[in-house]
User: Fold these one by one.
Assistant:
Number 1:
Amino acid sequence: MPNTERSRAQGVAKLIGLYVISVVVALLVSAILIKLTGGPWQKVVSAFFDGAFRRKGRWGLTLTEAAPLLIVALGAIISTRAGLVNIGQEGQVAVGAACMAMVATRGSGPLVLVLALVAGFAGGALWAGLAALLKYWRKVPEVISTLLLVFIASQGTGYMLTRTFWLLDSDPNKPNKVQTSAQLDASTRIGQIRIFGNSFPWSVPVALLLAVVVSVLLYRSVWGFRLTVLGRNARTAQRIGVPVVIAGASALALGGALAGLAGATMLAGGAANYRFTSGFANNVGWEGLLVALVARNRPLVCIPVALLFATLRTGSGFLAATGVERSIVDVARSLLVLALLVPPAVAAIRRRRLSPPAAPVSTDEPVVAAGLGA
């Protein structure tokens, strides 16, 4: 036991060291690129932290940005646990926000807000459900269908913004050079929490609660165990009584539903001044998927990772004021993301080399059958 604990501690220490080395290398390369383009890298670092935390109201904005990233990541984890690769979160976020806007702009009050959030949840589920239908009906790989549905969602929601029947603001006193929906009424918005001059919506603590709930369900429930078995071996899952089609389709739809909910909470929480616009998702779907990958599909680990990605989003907004070109800012941000993805990849390769092949799962074990039947 002591040797096992010692080896586990050494493995954790090596992983932490690899993270530190990767981030330091990414920062050094970023500093070199900034220096080569004539920018003062010292001012860049200071401006980054000003934009993320130090300036008044900025850390509240960082928390606001982190909430939808966390919700999207939780949905991606659920799909991945069932062995399904959902990479269409960007489209599901857009569809969820559009469905939310359709309901929220046609009424006001807390009840309308609840119904609009449910509409966003259902919209994301429906959009991911199309990929589930194609997979189990026509054998179309979900990694392809979810990706292609992103472009359909972009064009579809863009078309909805050209018709007042759907989403376009019909107020004649507000001519729109950029097509947007009507602004949400003050009573149809998520309330704000104000602390020390910073404000963030109630969706932030809700996202934290969702992370705890998803973690408990995946690791401490029969449903989570069934998804795990399905993700590791669909044939074994079928033999021990797991409804493969229903479980897989529901996991994919639930992942999309959480992405749609993320889009709905973004709109009701103040994104784009409470208006749905073209390109509303703003890469939240893609970055939420990256949060899940960096966190190695662990719901609670997604919390600090989502905060880190939100810091990159809010901090980079202040870098343009230092004279650094926007393209260099994007490159530096991408290098940091890549640095966070390297250690999990190295750890996975190391496990595959050191670990012996897993023993085949027996379907004759009465304990397993009894556990699944509970």
Number 2:
Amino acid sequence: MVKLEDAVIARLDKQSHHFEILVDPYAAWDYKHGKEVNLDYIFAMEEVYSDSAKGKLASEEVLKEVFQTTDFLTIAKKIIVDGEVQLTTSQRNEMLERRKNEIIDFIGKNAHDPKDMTPIPPQRIINALDSAKYKFTLNRKKEDEINEVLLVLKKAMPISLEKITMFIEVSATHSGKITSLLHRYDLIEEKWLPSGGLTAKVSIPVGLKSKLITELNNITHGSVIVDVLKQ
């Protein structure tokens, strides 16, 4: 459990009633936005309040009326997802910076310049967003904001998130050496051959094609079959 002094209020107004729980701000925010969180550490108290500052608990009758249950975990999840997690200014700024870095990292890893099929450096993305005076927000799902950021970037540069499927085959001599590399990408299929060799299919951003081929050639000393499969 989070310490009481480190907790913030997650609150929900529903059916003319007010509900509050005390939560870890970072874990609650992550859970609210779809990330996997260990719920054992998210709550300061396993109590649902109508006014936490006064220590006033919500009655069982009201909980049953609004949530059709008195189970704390079921109700708490609902309050976090459907309600509001109150953050301090410092926490909100930290969350915004994390959101910004996550989105830039995602685009940097998955986007490419469709003109020459090369990756787009993160600093170029940052410069374009700064020039457009884009402001990141915590009010939308990250996936929705990624789409908005892409729309902004498309006004400043050619950019695409197109992916390709690569077929890879190696002999038994090198098969064990490339498995950890393949699992860094979106591994669609992996088949071990009777000879000990390996075939695999991976989905990658177009811009990472040359990088993956170079990595495979370095590991296998050129003894690898690589092909782009038709979509």
Number 3:
Amino acid sequence: MTRIKTLLAFDGALVRGALAFVLTRQQDIAVVAELDRSDEIAAAICETQPDVAIVDFDLVGPAGPPTCGTHPQCRCSVLMLVDPRRSGALSEALQAKPHPPTVGFLGNHVAPQRVVDGVRRLSRGEPVVDGELVLAALKRSNPLTARELDVLRLAAEGYPVREIASTLALAPGTVRNYLSRIVGKVGGRTRIEAVRIAREAGWL
């Protein structure tokens, strides 16, 4: 069985050790490095070439997840564990263009199994986003344009793509592009999740 190589970067030894213990008990996951300094992360990624790096958001801040830009084979995905109370800083990170192939965000209060599941999903190139966490980060400002809100309102009412396009005088392909951008902006995985997040935030 191919094991998912995982790097841990946390300032607190207790949390880092507990998470390492949980991960090493999984048959398909191997912890290849444990760090407590942000300036060592990029070099460690280059040296160990993990599949996924689990990083404490407080260790790196809104500048974003660390990467190794000097090694062409460094394709490490990053799972950021974030304190939901740091919504302002998280909002900056969510809106920044990530450098790694995939960046996931989970609250630092989630159950260990959700972290394990996040590692597995990121290793497959699948998105990992905690909807409640994203909502906490974005609820103070609406990231959607007026046109995107028009599209989302009709989608929330159950209109299919062609009817949305006809109602708004848009091409079906344009509507699909709008919906894809909307899902990405609000941090959902599907159109249904995007509608739920937008409603809870009061944008719809």
Number 4:
Amino acid sequence: MCTIGDIVKMLNAAFPFEDALSFDNVGLLVGKKEQEVSKILVCLDVTHAVVKEAKECGVQLIVSHHPVIFREIKRVTDESYTGGILLDLIENGLSVISLHTNYDRAEDGNNVHLARALGAKEYTLTEDGFAVEFALERPLPFDEFQRIVKTALADSVVRCVGEGTVDRVITSCGAGISEGLIFRAKESGACLVTSDVKHNYASMTADLGVRLVETTHYASEWSFTKKMAEYLLGKLDKVEIILSRKNTNPYA
């Protein structure tokens, strides 16, 4: 039977932890490397509902996209949200490995998955892997492209800026938008597809005439669970892989 340490090494080789941005926190965040693993639960976020699900399913390991420990914490108590989750994990012998920005920017990571979901067959990774640019097979009216995004990502909440026709697209999952990315879209005439857009960036896109489709964060990164489950299934033939049913889009 494989151990937590074996899986850490395997994931680090495929999605190097050192590729994560400096503010990030990835790798084994909770648990012991020598613990044996027979069941893994894959999710986007480690919530109270997911921890309960993990206990009910009898897993030893949770593999998440978003780090269960993201910001610095000075104490682990049930007086904080993160502290309560960590206590529940530790008390029940549950380990957590998180793959975040190192997975987003990978050659087969979230940004590429997002582009492919929207029809990209040939594409270019830009912004050091945190964005993907591609051409549509045919130009589309902006309102039609909006519907394609909403349907492809199964997203009930989509907000848009702009008008006209879309023939090029830049995808950047999660909170990936930046001033530099907006100017890149302006120069190439591409429509931006991203999430968690702050007011100043939305205002900037409108002012510069850049088309923008804002999805929910969950929808832009939902592919992690399916793709990670597929990856683990291909590598761990004696370990049961379970997709979380409790970690869903909070806006759905």
